[in-house]
Amino acid sequence: MRLYKNEKTNVNYDMDPEIFCKAIDSNIKLVNEINDDCLKKNELLGFIISIPVADGEAFYQVIKIDDKKAKVEYCNTGDDYRDYILGDGGYIRRNIIDSQFDFKKYLKKKMK
Predict the structure, then answer these.
(1) pTM for this predicted structure
(2) Are 33 and 19 in contact (CB under 8 A)?
(3) Backbone angles phi, psi at 57, to 5 degrees
(4) Rounded to an integer, what distance in angstroms lies between the CA atom of residue 27 and that of residue 33?
């Protein structure tokens, strides 16, 4: 499993605004690459879900899966959005993970 937190995703809020925006774009690209890998392997473990927060979204990577729940860990893409309940991570219902995974698979298939 490719872990988001092990990749080069550092964002410093003292960065030049242009460099800061490029770093965020790079981190979002990494989220998409990891998800593409998971979709190709049909593997939920490592998949990154998104949860709407304010005017953006928070990203969480699936690091453990049980029958009815999954443990997720926060992926700071640079905008620092976190879900109010999950914060830096925790457990979420498995059906939420399955729904996002299946929807992304469907979209990928439709785009071919």
Answers:
(1) 0.90
(2) no
(3) -150, 150
(4) 10
The helix or strand, by DSSP H or E, that contains position 73, with its residue range, turns out to be: strand 69-75
Query: How would you class 63 by CB atoms within 10 Å of its CB: exposed for 0-12, middle for 13-18, buried for 19 or more?
Result: middle
65 by Cβ neighbours in 10 Å (0-12 / 13-18 / 19+) ranks as middle
Side chain identity, residue 97: I
Q: What own/partner pairs with CB < 8 Å and gap ≥ 24 does 24-27 have?
A: 24/77, 24/78, 24/79, 27/75, 27/76, 27/77, 27/78
The answer to whether 32 touches 17, Cβ cutoff 8 Å, is: no
User: Could you report the per-residue pLDDT of 39-95, keeping only the tens digit for each?
Assistant: 999 999 999 999 999 888 999 999 999 999 999 999 988 878 899 999 999 999 999
